[in-house]
Amino acid sequence: MSDNDRQLIHQDHQVSGVHFPLTLLLDDVTDPANVGAIFRLADALGVERLILGGETVKPPNRRLSRTSRSTDRAVAYDVSADINSCVVGLRKQGYQLIALELSAQSVDLQSLDYGAMERICLILGAEQTGVRSSLLEIVDYSVHISMLGVNSSMNVATAGAIAVYEMTRYLHGAVGTPDLIKRIEGESRNEKT
User: Fold this and answer.
1) What is the overall mean pLDDT for the chain?
2) Where are the alpha helices (DSSP H) in the chain?
3) Closest Cα partner for 86 from 144, 37, 132?
4) 186 pLDDT higher than 80
5) Domains (ranges, CATH) in the chain?
6) Is the previous residue joined to 178 through a cis bond, with omega within 30 degrees of 0?
7) Above 60 in pLDDT, residue 135?
8) Which residue of 29, 51, 59, 122 pairs with 25 in a disulfide if CB–CB is 3.0 to 4.6 A?
9) How far apart are CA 190 and CA 24, in angstroms?
10) Residues pairing with 122 in the sheet
C-alpha cells in the first residue's frame, strides 16, 4: 500500500476554523445522546452555535459529552428557557427561521435557496413531538426530508445532520474562527430567558 492510500488518523486532521452563519435551535431535545450527536455534527460541519431551548439537555452531562466526543467544550452554545422569545430575538438579528418538520406547509429541504439567505436558524424539535406548534406558526419556512420508506421520520440528530449538510453546501459568508480557548477553558454560560 502506498502512502497515498493510507487511512488518515485523528492527528492528520487540520482544523479549518470555518463557521457558517447557521445557528441550530434545539426545541426540547431531551436525549443526551441526541444532543451530544448534534454538538458533534455542529463541530464537524461549521455551525456557528447551538441554542439549547426549553427542556433540552445541557452540559455538563456525562452521556452528552461522551457522545459529542467532547465537542460540547468547543462548540459555542447558549441556553434559552423561553424559546418563543429567543426566536423573536433571532428574527430581529436577521435570521431566517427554518423548522425541520413534516407539516402541511413544509417543503422539501432541497427546494430552498440557502445561498440567498444571510443568516439561518434551523429549529430541531423534540424526539417524540417534533417542533412545537407555536414555533411552526412563526417560522419563515418549514422543511422536511423526503422519505422513501414506510416510516415518516428519522432520529433528530440524523435529520439535523442531513439538513445542515444540505444548507452549508450553499451558504456563503463564513463567520471566521471562534475563540476556542475561551470555551475550552470554561467560559461561563448565561441562561437567557
Assistant:
1) 87
2) 32-45, 62-68, 83-92, 133-136, 156-168, 180-184
3) 132
4) no
5) 18-144+153-178 (3.40.1280.10)
6) no
7) yes
8) 51
9) 17
10) 24, 98
Contact 63/156 with Cβ under 8 angstroms? no
The residues, ordered by sequence, that sit 6+ positions from 19 with a Cβ below 8 Å of its Cβ are: 46, 47, 48, 174, 175, 176, 177, 178
124: nearest Cα among 104, 142, 140: 142
Distances (CA, A) of 126 to 49, 135, 141, 174: 19, 12, 18, 28
| pTM for the model | 0.85
Asked if residues 121 and 25 have their Cβ atoms less than 8 Å apart, the reply is yes
Return the C-alpha cell found at 16.
479549518
Output the CA–CA distances (angstroms, integers) from residue 100 to 92, 108, 143, 175, in the order listed.
Answer: 21, 10, 5, 23
| Residue for grid cell 423561553 | 82
What cell was used for 17?
476554523
The residue type found at 81 is A
| Cα dihedral across residues 70, 76, 82, 86: positive or negative | negative
- Give me 95's grid cell: 435570521
Q: Rounded to whole angstroms, how far apart are CA atoms 149 and 10? A: 35
163 pLDDT more than 70: yes
Burial class (CB in 10 A: 0-12, 13-18, 19+), 150: exposed
